[in-house]
Specification:
- With about 300 residues, the chain is mainly beta.
- The chain is built from 2 helices and 22 strands.
- Strands 3, 5, 8, 9, 10, 12, 13 and 14 form an 8-stranded mixed sheet that branches. A 5-stranded mixed sheet has the order 16-22-21-18-19.
């Protein structure tokens, strides 16, 4: 009895469950898997470290009618992660409860959920990047204590990757001399992770000799879906420097997600600045990037100084 496993990307902010079909698993490609030809999904399930993920199996379609007709009580489902990960039952509003382990002898790793088999589970991914495997097996039950038929195993490979990171260049100061209309400002940056990245930042303007204004928030989407980490340009449009132009502009990174972390990671754990959340990796820089927009000097006329004695 072959089951069809469905992957569910788990967005912890809204705790909304969203399923996608599983297809043949290729050999593992190292630390990165490109999109399939359709361009809509990975050819292997790729998630971010620490993600809370949900997985579901539809169960064998020939068993359901037998259960409805009273010929069988239900099916138990075996869920085994290698290495071992916790198994939870999905609860209301995204909460998770402990799963009920089968009491049938020899049914190690099989679970039920009340009067039905446990077809959907949640787990918490490891805190380090690695490849893990999920095995699922359906075992039909004649009644609560009498096993029916054991199905064949279905395995599913899951690639766990690190959260994305953002780094400024070594020199975090840029001086631009204004000679006419303001142009875009390009800052070279280093990103890790998997494109596309969405970078959130604020710009705080301080006029020369004046007080700092309120920070204004913006976002930029960088690179393409198949990009790997490397060096990129954060291009800030000229319009974001306002009409005043001259002065100091502090750019602070406030958030960072890549394609994998957006679909799998609790967004409250994304892009912690040093000192903000002590128990997570520091994904974005504490330092602000200073863009100084300076007036270009206009050399004045040369004057003759009174003859010296």
């Amino acid at each position: 009895m072959k089951t069809n496993i469905l992957k569910t990307g788990f967005f912890a902010v809204a705790m909304t469950l969203c399923s996608a079909g599983v297809f043949a698993q290729p050999s593992l490609p190292g630390d990165y898997t490109q999109f399939s030809a359709s361009g809509t999904r990975e050819s292997i399930d790729t998630v971010t470290v620490g993600s809370r993920m949900a997985y579901r199996t539809a169960g064998d379609p020939t068993i359901a009618p037998l259960i409805t007709a009273g010929k069988m009580a239900m099916s138990e489902f075996q869920w085994v992660f290698t290495p071992t990960l916790p198994i939870y039952v999905p609860g209301a509003n995204g909460t998770a409860n402990a799963a009920t382990v089968s009491t049938i002898a020899g049914h190690t790793g099989y679970y039920t959920n009340g009067a039905i088999g446990l077809k959907e589970i949640h787990t918490i991914m490891p805190t380090t990047s690695q490849t893990i495997q999920l095995l699922v097996n359906e075992w039909s039950m004649i009644n609560a204590t009498t096993p029916g038929c054991a199905g064949t195993d279905t395995t599913y490979k899951i690639q766990v990757v690190n959260r994305p990171t953002f780094a400024w260049p070594a020199d975090t100061v840029m001086a631009t001399c204004l000679t006419g209309a303001m142009g875009n400002v390009t800052i070279p940056i280093t990103l890790s992770g998997y494109g596309q990245w969405i970078v959130g930042y604020t710009i705080t303007y301080t006029p020369f000799g004046g007080s700092a204004g309120a920070p204004v928030a913006y976002t930029e989407t960088l690179a393409t879906n198949n990009s790997k980490g490397g060096t990129f340009n954060l291009v800030i449009p000229a319009a974001r420097f306002g009409t005043a132009a001259q002065g100091e502009y502090h750019v602070r990174i406030t958030s960072l997600t890549d394609r994998i972390s957006r679909k799998s990671l609790d967004q409250t754990l994304v892009a912690a600045r040093p000192g903000a959340i002590a128990d997570v990796v520091k994904d974005i820089p504490k330092e602000r990037y200073l863009v100084s927009l300076l007036p270009t000097p206009k050399t004045q006329k040369l004057e003759h100084v009174k003859n010296l004695p």
